[in-house]
Structure formats: structure tokens, C-alpha cells
Design a protein that fits this description.
By secondary structure, the protein is of the alpha/beta class. The chain has one domain: Alpha-Beta Barrel (TIM Barrel). The chain is built from 13 helices and ten strands. The strands form two sheets. The protein has an eight-stranded parallel barrel, surrounded by six helices. The protein has a two-stranded antiparallel sheet with strand order 2-3. α4 links the parallel β5 and β6. The two termini are 36 Å apart. The model has no long low-confidence stretch (mean pLDDT 93).
């Protein structure tokens, strides 16, 4: 996919997908069949973009072989029907190696998490993205969560040929507005976080990265479409229904997303990076919250 096409297609709901695992004795293995089902569920729901092996995908707990396995499985199942980005972590040398592997595995782009110790300054950060960009032909999506990455740095990143989108997770709406106004015609500006979705839409974000879209993709598509039509009363109507889930997410973390996937007949499995699963009581709370969406047409 050429970079202009990728930039155009990296819009709308962006799903950051967990990595499903199955238990085998005292080990956890990537659930390849489950990942295929999850990807097909998102394709059939009309989701345009998925990111695998990101933070929610437990990137830091995947081996190099598991990372390759997840990226290959996701891209094979997407089969061009959905844009696939792969999360990449490390210093410049490690990120170049892993980004090349992701490109070979079929990814359309990489979401980069540079090692903070390796890029302590803005200049080092720009150099990191420059080096990685020169090593691959697929797209790059910088991740902005640190104050280090200001508008001046973003302008320099946006000038790199491979940079097609920005994941914005600072949750400062004044900064988000400045970024959209300054760079929205060059990059897809993806607002991350369920709690701030309406604000990202009002301020003209190019996309929403919301964890609940893993198991409620139709709901988020409705929210996105309402925002594009300027129907912000409808956006808030949908958003307000999600308050109980946001409250549970603050308590349960990634375990909530994996359990919710399972309650929808999809693949979740245990977490490696947190307590593995919800307790029976916690799972019952989640099932009750999800029951609202099964019973009510929102």
C-alpha cells in the first residue's frame, strides 16, 4: 500500500487489539485461531484500522517470534480489508530490526514506542524516527504521551515521508486542538482514550482509539458517524452509556477487555502483564454492564 493511500485509510475507529493467549500447562501461548476470529470480527464490523502488539497487546511480554506470529496472523486475516499497524519498542537499532520484521510479516505500518533512555532529548527523538523511517517502506505512527514531543517536534516528524499518523495520548485538549489545526491536513491525528472520545470528535480528530471498540465496534462506529455529521447530542448519548464500563476499566485494566471479548464469544485468555483474569464476581459485574448493550438498541 503506498503511503498516501495508507494516510487516507488511517482514519475513523482505530482498534488497539489485545493479544489473545491460551494456557498450556504452566505456559501461555498466542491463540492464533482466536486472533483470526477477533480480526475477522473487526473486519465484518467495518473497522478500518487495527494496531496489534501495542501496549494493550502486551508488547513488552511478547517474544520476537510471538510478535512475528501475531503480525503475520493479523495481516493474513485482514487481507487488505483493514489497515494493520504493529507496535514496536526499543532503541533505534532494535526498532529498525523489529520494524523490518513487521514489514516482512505484512504490516502496513508501525506504531513506535522509543526507549526513553535511548531518546532523552527532542533531537534524539527526531533522529530515532529518521533512522527507522529510512530503514522501511511502510508507514510510521509516532506515539505522543510525553511533554518532550511538542508542536515543533511534531512538525519535524510530520515532514518525514513515512509518518502518516499520530497517536495522541496526552489527554490535554488544548494541545490536541493545536495539533489538529497545525498538522491535521498532513497526518491522521488519532485521539486515544475512551473517556475523551467526544472531545476528540469535537476538535476534529481524524480517528478514535478506544479500547471498548474491541468488543463494541458497532457502537463506536455509530459514535464516529454521528461526530462526522455534527450530531454531538448523539455522540454524548452513546458516550454516556459507556460510563459504567469506564468505571470498571479503571478497576480491572486490561483484564476487562479480555473478559469482555470472551463474553462476546471472542478470544481473550489470560493477561501476562497483570493478574491473569477477572475473579468470578468481577466477571459477573462486567457481564451485567455488557448486558445493557445486548438488551438496548443505542
Amino acid at each position: 500500500m503506498n503511503l498516501d493511500t495508507l494516510r487516507t485509510r488511517t482514519r475513523g475507529i482505530v482498534v488497539f487489539a489485545p493479544t489473545p493467549f491460551v494456557e498450556e500447562g504452566n505456559r501461555t501461548l498466542v491463540d492464533v485461531e482466536g486472533l483470526e476470529r477477533n480480526m475477522e470480527f473487526l473486519v465484518q464490523a467495518g473497522i478500518p484500522v487495527v494496531v496489534v502488539c501495542g501496549g494493550v497487546g502486551e508488547l513488552w511480554d511478547l517474544s520476537a517470534e510471538e510478535h512475528r506470529q501475531v503480525v503475520e496472523t493479523a495481516t493474513r486475516q485482514a487481507a487488505g480489508r483493514m489497515v494493520v499497524f504493529a507496535g514496536i519498542y526499543g532503541d533505534a537499532a532494535a526498532s529498525i530490526t523489529r520494524s523490518r520484521q513487521a514489514e516482512k510479516a505484512g504490516a502496513d505500518g508501525v506504531l513506535l514506542f522509543p526507549d526513553d533512555e535511548a531518546v532523552p532529548t527532542a533531537e534524539a527523538l527526531v533522529d530515532y524516527y529518521t533512522q527507522v523511517g529510512r530503514s522501511i517502506t511502510i508507514g510510521m505512527m509516532p506515539f505522543r504521551a510525553a511533554e518532550l514531543v511538542d508542536i515543533a517536534v511534531l512538525r519535524r516528524l510530520a515532514a518525514l515521508p513515512n509518518v502518516v499518523a499520530l497517536k495522541e495520548e496526552r489527554e490535554h485538549m488544548d494541545e490536541f486542538q493545536e495539533i489538529v489545526l497545525a498538522l491535521g491536513d498532513q497526518l491522521s491525528i488519532i485521539g486515544a482514550g475512551d473517556a475523551f472520545a467526544p472531545s476528540y470528535l469535537v476538535l476534529g480528530g481524524s480517528g478514535l482509539a478506544c479500547s471498548f471498540s474491541n468488543f463494541l465496534p458497532d457502537l463506536y462506529t455509530q459514535m464516529w458517524e454521528a461526530g462526522q455529521q455534527g450530531d454531538f447530542a448523539r455522540v454524548m448519548e452513546i458516550h454516556n452509556t459507556l460510563v459504567p464500563l469506564n468505571q470498571l476499566r479503571r478497576r480491572f485494566g486490561l483484564r476487562l477487555i479480555k473478559a469482555a471479548l470472551e463474553l462476546r464469544g471472542l478470544a481473550g485468555g489470560p493477561c501476562r502483564s497483570e493478574p491473569p483474569r477477572l475473579s468470578p464476581g468481577e466477571r459477573e459485574e462486567l457481564a451485567e454492564a455488557l448486558g445493557y448493550f445486548a438488551a438496548v438498541a443505542v
